[in-house]
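User: Fold this; tokens only.

Assistant: Input:
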Amino acid sequence: ERTHPGLPRSIAPPHRLLTASMKPTLRINPAFATRLKQHGLDTVEQIMGRDGGKVMRQAPGRITVRLNLAEDTKLYLKRHFPPSPGAAMDGLREWDNMEILRSLEISCPTLVAAGCGIVDGAPCSFLITEEVPDAIPLDDFLSGLCSDRGGSPWNHKRHLIRKLADLARKLHRQGHHHKDFYLCHLFVNQHSPLDSPLTLIDLQRLGRAHWFRRRWIVKDLAALNYSARVEFTTHTDRLRFLLAYLGRDRLDPRARRLIRAILRKTERIRRHDLKLQAAVQSLEARV
């Protein structure tokens, strides 16, 4: 049986998931068109079948690799394929979501290309973005920052808390929610953290709710709370973030109700995460 070129056999998409009516679609940022063509990355088939690159993340139905096309061109290629339920459209959906956030002046990685099609009889899609220069995940940056007990790093942390609160407030006031709003999905420039915006990644699940909006807001804030590890986050930090997010100087009954909802959701996320870790360990033990 054939498998996706460039993908491990164990995660190749099954032929039974054929979507014959799906039309191939390819979007390319004109600024990258020549470079992509030079490196054989200008068709859906070539991109989905690309070998090489450093694997950054891999899960059932999705793999992300880092490509170095040249010294000044470092890209991230995220590919979706069955059994992922959104395999056929996730790449294009994330492109659209990033354009929405950029129109709201929320920083996202530079779009390079996106597309979808049928490869080896199965629906698939992809997204290529440019690496954010000198950026690392916000949780890693805060962890390193708080290992330095000098006065300046702590002032930097307060400034970043304010930036994070401003970003979350802007996102939610525009009616959007991330659904995976963890600190690892926010990147900060490690050399100029105060002068550069926080950059939001992994946007294929971005949504806009017309009903039950509070539920999704609580989920986003709980994800931030859960990923803000105690090694670099104090109770004062959490309170400072929430007051900045709400635009208030002190807690009122509404804010206290929101805190209780966030804490309940945080605990549910924690339990769910523990179950996932136990399942992974069980699978690894069987191998």
